């Protein structure tokens, strides 16, 4: 298992290098320039100076290699310096956002808690709703519960978050007035009252995203349960005289969870990626909002870094899913 | 006066297992697959009843319905004095230790995520309050009985060969010391070289533990070797139920005759003279069986009466039961009552 993991990690290096190059070229070749927002009244020589100051006048390959060095050496070492008080990369240039001229990683550090709290909770809530629905739907296939569960999943699948989110705002904020329409990122949780406030403002975005997540996971759970429900070993378990609870929860569920756990693991990178639409809708100032802002402003270092971090997470969680599979299913061996 | 014949351990009366068919836009109940349609037999304690028939004739369904792995549609299954078909779920669970099943596919019937120890000792967790050591001791004892090396106790099913897996299946079935075991084609999925080992193991265990078997198989020579009595099934009904010696020497029912003529004869001289009966046509659908005798569409000796009246399983010779009009008429020639009864039935059908 260790050899397998190390081998996969080594193989990930060329994969990620190619991905980073492709992202860099795509972002660079896309139309638009970081200075397109600057008024035309700015004289050309001043404009040229501004471009030079950003480093945007350098050839693409040069900027790419510089970015690689910054990403893989300067930024990690900077973190290291921060932790241990050393001065390894002091004075070296970090990856700077072209919009704000502040380091991209500080921006990410500011944005990520919002994203993780809201989107992460939504994912967790989605899983917690989806698993029981999937399990019971499969156990009572074609029952009324199953039909309603299917309807719920279809709604979750087909209704886009910008619609369901707006609908929730209209119902719960405008008509009923129970919940705030906007997520206040400046709110600090210091006591019970502010904690309740935080919970209240999280409900709408969490519900919107949770519905979408729960829809797909409950379908996976249901079909995986159905696959296993008809297996011979389930009949064996019944013949052993086990109670129905044990048959379903121990024999069927444990085997059905194998593919579901991997699907859940593969979905985790999307938490970090944020949910661009939902974050914008509710004003959650997270990673998704940062990405969309950077794309609009042609902020190449920011877009490049964020996209590459997502790529790393996806590769990493693919590996984690494979390793998990090996742990959960004794039939699978990585030797 | 019945002391000489002990009461049968297993008694099945008119067992029916119909699977409903739902069709159309509104999933209307439009019919039933009559997988088992009125099967009755008895098995004496310590004996083996063979159940043979072609694929899809309902053999396995009989076994599963008997142990309530399916909910039988109708009929009684009395095992050791209790009607299994009518037990409440909790009482049924308590009854399970005394009746077990060895399944056909030894790969699929073992939970892939459980080790041998977990598989074999799980019934003990459920039905006993033994300590962990005592359960492990019992697992070892069972492994010795079925001839598995004790070192394999922590292995997973996929790490065993087919024959070994079937031994696990047998050990699992034996864990709670059952009286009655349904062997549902336990050798069908195995290599020929392994089949004999498993069959011998089953025989040894029967002799040692006094087990009663229902041995379901389509391997006629294996059944002949194992069973004292054999029931031949066709399309959900028993065609003939005879002591195995008599059946193999002189089958009475035309279907049994055709089936047995298909058994390979090792002696080439005898094989050349063998009178192979080849049936024409296909087995009718169990959802829509023929009106009279189930076999009337393919029977070489079919008569008019066969197409309208279902023959009952009756004793035509001592110990031999046959469901066929050929024998009904012979026995009825002496008494006019019998033929009248048949005529009445016919009229009833015609109206």
Blueprint of the fold:
The complex is a heterodimer of chains A (335) and B (351).
Chain A: H1 2-29, H2 44-54, H3 60-84, H4 104-139, H5 144-158, H6 161-175, H7 192-229, H8 232-239, H9 244-273, H10 276-282, H11 287-296, H12 300-328
Chain B: E1 10-23, E2 28-43, E3 48-52, H1 59-66, E4 74-79, E5 82-83, H2 89-95, E6 99-102, H3 116-127, H4 132-146, H5 162-174, E7 180-184, H6 192-209, E8 212-216, H7 220-226, E9 229-234, E10 237-243, H8 244-249, H9 254-260, H10 268-273, E11 314-317, E12 320-322, H11 325-332, H12 336-350
Parallel strand pairs in B: 3-8, 3-9, 6-7, 7-8
Antiparallel strand pairs in B: 1-2, 1-4, 4-5, 9-10, 10-12, 11-12
Helix pairs in contact in B: 3-4, 3-5, 4-5, 5-6, 11-12
Overview of this protein structure:
- The complex is a heterodimer of chains A (335) and B (351).
- Chain A has 335 residues and is mainly α.
- In chain A, 75% of the residues lie in helices and 0% in strands.
- Chain A contains twelve helices and no strands.
- Chain B is globular and about 65 Å long.
- Chain B is built from twelve helices and twelve strands.
- Chain B has a domain at 2-227: 3-Layer(aba) Sandwich (Rossmann fold).
- The N and C termini of chain B lie far apart (46 Å).
């Amino acid at each position: 298992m260790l050899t397998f993991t190390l081998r996969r990690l080594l193989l990930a290096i060329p994969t990620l290098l190619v991905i980073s190059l492709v992202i860099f070229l795509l972002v660079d070749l896309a139309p638009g320039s970081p200075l397109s927002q600057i008024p035309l009244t700015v004289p050309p020589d001043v404009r040229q100076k501004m471009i030079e100051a950003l480093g945007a006048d350098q050839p693409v390959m040069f900027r790419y290699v510089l970015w690689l060095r910054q990403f893989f050496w300067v930024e990690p070492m900077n973190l290291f310096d921060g932790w241990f008080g050393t001065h390894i990369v002091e004075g070296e240039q970090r990856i700077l956002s072209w919009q704000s001229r502040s380091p991209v990683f500080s921006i990410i550090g500011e944005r990520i808690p919002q994203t993780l709290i809201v989107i992460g909770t939504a994912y967790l809530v989605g899983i917690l709703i989806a698993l029981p629905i999937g399990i019971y739907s499969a156990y009572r296939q074609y029952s009324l519960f199953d039909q309603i569960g299917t309807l719920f999943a279809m709604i979750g699948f087909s209704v886009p978050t910008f619609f369901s989110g707006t609908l929730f705002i209209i119902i719960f904020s405008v008509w009923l007035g129970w919940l705030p329409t906007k997520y206040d990122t400046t709110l600090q949780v210091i006591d019970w009252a502010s904690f309740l406030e935080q919970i209240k403002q999280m409900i709408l975005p969490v519900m919107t995203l949770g519905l979408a997540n729960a829809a797909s996971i409950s379908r996976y759970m249901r079909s995986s349960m159905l696959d296993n429900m008809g297996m011979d070993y389930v009949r064996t378990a019944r013949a052993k005289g086990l109670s129905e609870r044990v048959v379903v929860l121990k024999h069927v569920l444990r085997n059905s969870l194998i593919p579901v756990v991997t699907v859940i693991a593969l979905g985790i990178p999307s938490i970090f990626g944020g949910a661009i639409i939902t974050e914008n809708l509710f004003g959650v100032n997270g990673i998704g909002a940062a990405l969309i802002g950077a794309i609009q402003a042609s902020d190449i270092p920011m877009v490049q870094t964020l996209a590459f971090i997502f790529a790393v997470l996806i590769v990493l969680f693919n590996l984690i899913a494979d390793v998990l599979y090996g742990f959960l299913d004794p039939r699978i061996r990585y030797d | 006066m019945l002391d000489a014949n002990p009461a049968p351990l297993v008694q099945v009366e008119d067992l029916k297992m119909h699977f409903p068919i739902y069709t159309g836009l509104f999933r209307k109940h439009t019919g039933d697959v009559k997988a088992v349609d009125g099967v009755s037999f008895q098995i004496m304690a310590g004996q083996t009843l063979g159940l043979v028939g072609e694929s899809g004739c309902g053999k396995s369904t009989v076994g599963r319905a008997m142990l309530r792995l399916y909910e039988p549609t109708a009929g009684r299954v009395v095992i050791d004095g209790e009607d299994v078909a009518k037990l409440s779920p909790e009482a049924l669970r308590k009854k399970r230790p005394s009746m077990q099943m060895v399944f056909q596919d030894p790969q699929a019937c073992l939970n892939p995520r459980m080790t041998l120890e977990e598989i074999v000792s799980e019934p003990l967790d459920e039905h006993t309050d033994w300590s962990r050591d005592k359960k492990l001791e019992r697992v070892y004892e069972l492994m010795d009985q079925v001839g598995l090396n004790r070192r394999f106790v922590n292995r997973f099913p996929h790490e065993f060969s087919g024959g070994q897996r079937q031994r696990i299946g047998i050990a699992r079935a034996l864990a709670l010391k059952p009286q009655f075991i349904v062997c549902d084609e336990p050798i069908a999925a195995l290599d020929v070289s392994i089949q004999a080992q498993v069959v011998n193991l089953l025989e040894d265990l029967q002799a040692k533990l006094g087990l009663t078997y229902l041995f379901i198989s389509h391997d006629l020579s294996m059944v002949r070797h194992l069973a004292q009595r054999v029931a031949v099934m066709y399309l959900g009904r028993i065609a003939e139920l005879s002591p195995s010696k008599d059946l193999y020497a002189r089958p009475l029912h035309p279907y049994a005759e055709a089936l047995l003529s298909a058994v390979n004869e090792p002696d080439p001289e005898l094989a050349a003279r063998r009178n192979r009966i080849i049936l024409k046509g296909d087995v009718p659908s169990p959802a829509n069986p023929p009106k009279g005798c189930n076999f009337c569409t393919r029977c070489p000796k079919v008569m008019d009466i066969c197409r309208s009246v279902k023959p009952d399983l009756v004793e035509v010779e001592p110990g031999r039961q046959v469901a066929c009009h050929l024998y009904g008429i012979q026995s009825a020639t002496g008494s006019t009552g019998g033929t009248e009864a048949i005529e009445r039935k016919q009229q009833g059908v015609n109206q």
